[in-house]
Amino acid sequence: FRAQGKTVFFGGYHPSFMKEVAIRHADSICLGEAELNIPRMIEDYRADRLEPFYKSELVNLDSLPALNRSLINKKAYFITNVLQATRGCHHRCTFCSVAPFNEYTLRNRPIGKVLEELKSMGRYILFMDDNLTLNREYAKELFTQMIPLKKKWFSQCGVGLAEDDELLHLAAKSGCRGLFIGFESLSQQSLSTWKKHCNRRKDYLDVVHKLHKKGIAICAAFVFGCDEDNRDVFATTLDFLLEANADSIQSTRLTPFPGTPLFDQMQKEGRLIDNDWSHYDFFHVVYEPKNMDKETLHSGTAWLQKEFYSYKNIARRVSRAIKYLDSDILLKVVIPVNLGYRFKLSRYGAFELGRCFQP
C-alpha cells in the first residue's frame, strides 16, 4: 500500500509494544486504545501534519458513544450482539498481554449505559470483557439489573466466580449460559511461576461442577509449556477435561508475546528461538522449553486437541451435557463450537501432528 502512495496506520497490541519495529512498515502508529487516538490521527492526516506515534491516556468508558450497529455485516460473524461492560485486568500473569496493554487497570462502564445497549440487542449476547466478574460488586449489580431483560449471555471470567455463591446465582439468573475460563494449568507450581495467583489452591473439578449445575457451559483454557511441565502434562490434563466434562477447550502452546514479562524474561535468558512474528500464534513453539523438547511440546498439545475433539469424545460430552444445558445452547453453541474447533485444528494439521505423540 505504501508503494502505491497510500498512508498506512497501524494499531493494536504488537505495534503498541514494538513501535520502533512497526513504524518501519507504517506512516503512523496508534499506541494503546483507539477511541481517543484515531480521531486525532485522521484530523492530522487531513491537515498534512501526521505524526509517527499517537498515545492517549486510558479511555474513560463513561464517554464511549453508542455503536451504529447497522454498519455490521451480520452474515460475516457467528454473533454480532457483542458489547463490553468492563475493560482490562489488574492481575499480573506473566504471559498475558491484556493487562499491560490496559496498564494493569480495570475500568467499568456505567451500568445504565450497558443496560441501554443491551435493550437494543437480540436475545443472545456476547460480553467481550477480559474478566466480567473481576469487580464482583459491579458484576452483582449488573446481573441483578439484567434479570428482567431475559437475555442469554456468554463471556469470559476467572475461576473465582465459583467461590461466590451470590455472584454465581445472579450470573445464572441473569442469563449466563457459557463462560470462557482461564484454568491455564493443573500444576500449582506452574500457576506460581506465571503469577496466576488467583487460580492457586482452587478445586477445578468443583468449579466446573458448580457452573454446570447452574446451566453454564465452560470453554476451559489451558496453556502448555511452563518450565515445570513435562510430557505427562498432556495425558493428565486430558483426564481432567474428560472427567469434568468441559464443554470445549482452548489449548495452546505457551507464547511469550512482546510486551509481557514472560517475553522479557525469555529474551534475557536467550531462550527465544524464532523471530518470525507470524509464528507467535499459539500454534508454533518459539522458545526453548525446559523439561521437554520443543517437538514434544508441539506434538503433545496437538495430541490433546486430537483426543478431546474426536467425534467419540464430542458425542460423549454432548450426551452428558443434556442433563445440565438448555437444548438451544447445545444446538446453537456447544455443538457448533466443538465442530468448529475440530475443523480449525484439522485444517492446521493438529490431528495429523497429534498422531506423532505417544503419551
Question: Given the helix and strand composition, which structural class is it?
Answer: alpha/beta
Write down the secondary-structure element order. EHHEHEEEHEHEHEHEHHEHEHHHHH
Flag low-confidence runs.
Answer: none
Rg from C-alpha positions?
21 Å
Strand content: 5-15%
What is the number of E strands?
A: 11
- The helicity comes to 25-40%
Continuous helix count? 15
Global outline: globular
Mean pLDDT: 96
- First-last Cα distance: 48 Å
**Biggest sheet: strand arrangement:** 4-7-8-9-10-11
Properties at a glance:
359 residues, alpha/beta, 6-stranded parallel beta sheet, 3-stranded parallel beta sheet, 11 strands, 40% helix, 14% strand
Please provide a brief summary of the model.
With 359 residues, the chain is an alpha/beta fold. The chain is 40% helix and 14% strand.
Task: Describe the protein.
The protein is of the alpha/beta class and 359 residues long. The protein has helices at residues 13-17, 19-22, 37-46, 98-101, 111-119, 136-146, 165-173, 188-193, 204-213, 232-244, 261-269, 294-308, 311-321, 327-347, 350-354, and strands at residues 9-11, 28-31, 53-55, 82-83, 86-88, 106-108, 124-127, 152-157, 176-184, 217-224, 248-253. The strands form three sheets. It has a six-stranded parallel beta sheet with strand order 4-7-8-9-10-11. A three-stranded parallel beta sheet has the order 1-2-3. Strand 7 (124-127), helix 6 and strand 8 form a beta-alpha-beta unit. Helix 6 (136-146) packs parallel to helix 7. The model has no long low-confidence stretch (mean pLDDT 96).
